[in-house]
Amino acid sequence: MKNKKHLTLLLATCISVAGCSTVRAPSPADPLEGFNRTVFQFNDDLDRYAMKPVAQGYKFVLPTPVRASVTNFFSNLGDVDNLANNLLQANVTAATQDLMRIAINTVFGVGGLFDFATPAGLPKHNQDFGVTLGKWGLPSGPYLVLPLFGPSTIRDTVGTVADLQIDPSGYFKPIWFRNTLYGLRVVNTRANYLGATNLLAQAALDKYSFTRDAYLQRRQYLIKGSSASEQNLPNYDDESGPTAAAPAAPAETSAPAAPASASEPAGAAAPAGASAPGAAQPSNNDNDNAVPVPNRQMVPNSLRLFH
User: Which positions make up the signal peptide (predicted)?
Assistant: First the structure.
């Protein structure tokens, strides 16, 4: 009888381990999965209990035109990063467009509060130094989830550090004003994507795996464009559930287009060289996933999929 009890306990343990392995299957691109999941959960909890409630209050208090101007202001600052990276990629046409956007929106748009460049036919680009390093041929390295910043890779982490040095808001004085801008950018970005992150939460049982694979697929598209392989994402539901569909990679275009994930985010995503509507205004409903944001900033896990 005692041996039977031990055998039953052993079988139960094996079944439990086997069940866990179906969800946490090792990935060659994610050797740090244990660490990454811990940080991902921390970011997710921080978003759920702090960032999301603050963003909901921000959206409730500020009218749509005000939030649109805040978004345009940070989008204008983000064009400086776009300009630098397009120059580093020897994309002269895009760099010229970025320079003209900065000049027009800064002068005629009252420091970027209003976007006159997009209606004038100057597209909004979405570049960062991680993409530049990828186009230079540097391997991405392992997938990495950063505290506060969310999904990344070793290469993109180096890129994030470089982008932060380029970000004009980092040079504003006094320090309290600069830090206030950082906080405002985070809250405004979170408010813009309330609807998108709600949809993501319902998309898959394993949010970590869904976010990881969508992020890596999008970064590959940003670097390689239409030549990137279109691979279906794995099934993140249970064995009896349907397979989770991968988010479609947006087509590269020179005209303003709504993004499919943040100075930083992504977050699910717009391709390099694709346009985001700089003049877009936050909507009054929760489906705000079409509102552009600047590159690379502190955002929850899921927002890095969108930029």
Answer: 1-25
Amino acid at 189: T
How far apart CA 307 and CA 139 sit, in angstroms, is 20
**231 three-state secondary structure:** coil
> Could you read off the pLDDT of 272-295 as tens digits, one per residue?
333 333 444 443 444 333 333 334
At residue 297, the pLDDT reads: 45
Name the token pair of 132: 């530049």
Alpha-carbon span 276 to 260, nearest angstrom: 10
Rounded CA-CA distance 296/267 in Å is 9
- What is the residue type of 47? D
Its pTM stands at 0.69
What is the number of alpha carbons within 13 Å of residue 221 lying toward its C-beta? 26
Backbone angles phi, psi at 144, to 5 degrees: -145, 130
- H or E segment to which residue 143 belongs: strand 143-146
Q: Closest by alpha carbon to 210, among 238, 239, 247?
A: 247
Domain boundaries, the chain: 40-262+272-305
